[in-house]
Amino acid sequence: xxxxxxxxxxxxxxxxxxxxxxxxxxxxxxxxxxxxxxxxxxxxxxxxxxxxxxxxxxxxxxxxxxxxxxxxxxxxxxxxxxxxxxxxxxxxxxxxxxxxxxxxxxxxxxxxxxxxxxxxxxxxxxxxxxxxxxxxxxxxxxxxxxxxxxxxxxxxxxxxxxxxxxxxxxxxxxxxxxxxxxxxxxxxxxxxxxxxxxxxxxxxxxxxxxxxxxxxxxxxxxxxxxxxxxxxxxxxxxxxxxxxxxxxxxxxxxxxxxxxxxxxxxxxxxxxxxxxxxxxxxxxxxxxxxxxxxxxxxxxxxxxxxxxxxxxxxxxxxxxxxxxxxxxxxxxxxxxxxxxxxxx
Length: 344
Known about the structure:
Layout: E1 5-8, H1 12-19, H2 31-39, E2 43-51, E3 54-66, E4 69-75, E5 79-80, H3 86-99, E6 104-108, H4 115-123, E7 127-128, E8 137-142, H5 147-152, H6 156-168, E9 171-174, H7 178-195, H8 202-211, E10 217-224, E11 227-237, E12 240-248, H9 258-271, E13 276-281, H10 293-300, E14 305-308, E15 313-316, H11 321-335
Parallel strand pairs: 4-6, 12-13
Antiparallel strand pairs: 1-2, 2-3, 3-4, 3-5, 6-15, 7-15, 8-13, 8-14, 9-10, 10-11, 11-12
Helix pairs in contact: 2-8
């Protein structure tokens, strides 16, 4: 292969057209996600890999500074037309990491979880990361189907919950206003405390709504008898809608308004011309002890199929990587997460 030239892309259209030319991609490689990172104070690069001035690869790179170490992160990327491009990209990023005093490179790729892909990265010096960054086992729904088919392919419980919520008069309201955002922040924080997970900061959530325009993000609430019981944030990118954030405050045990809220989000995705509704992260299996098994069962109840992306891989730059590996390994054990590695 001839020498690949890597340079930054500064035209939004060129970037978006290339990313959305793939069968699978997520908003984590969108132009807007780069803007979101900049709003959050992170340093980013949008690199393109060119051969004879033809774009063959894109890679959004984020410099992450953490107490455990500094690293370069590529979320759900790189996206490439030929996997032979990974080697020159790695060499290029290793040089950048050295300049930026980063301890390692982390690829949280959109590659499928296969033995071939794992071997490819490991042959280049990458090692299995101790912790994930973004969703790797995801649940997808083909929303190009008609409404009746979608309802028929759900679990009976999900279908009944939707009908019950409609009968009870649950109202689903979209509200991207500042008031709505503040309301969601409060709900999200309260739900995180009750459920025992770490909430996103108010700044994180506000930056999302600044980076993604009104047509690309949707905040909805499910109200019942004058009280808000569920909320969700959906991000639209290309032909995909992603169920990204949620919060619940259920006060009635007989049924959950969350099912109708989810159904209305699916219908919104259809109305925008989306082909895929991405429920985002689910547990890799049906182990009842997995930390997110409960919400995973909820998502799977709407029908669809599982897509397993390759677990994150790290490329160490210097010896300081070992400290990061130890800290993240201990965190993973404490949180009871585990990953299924392709068998060789």
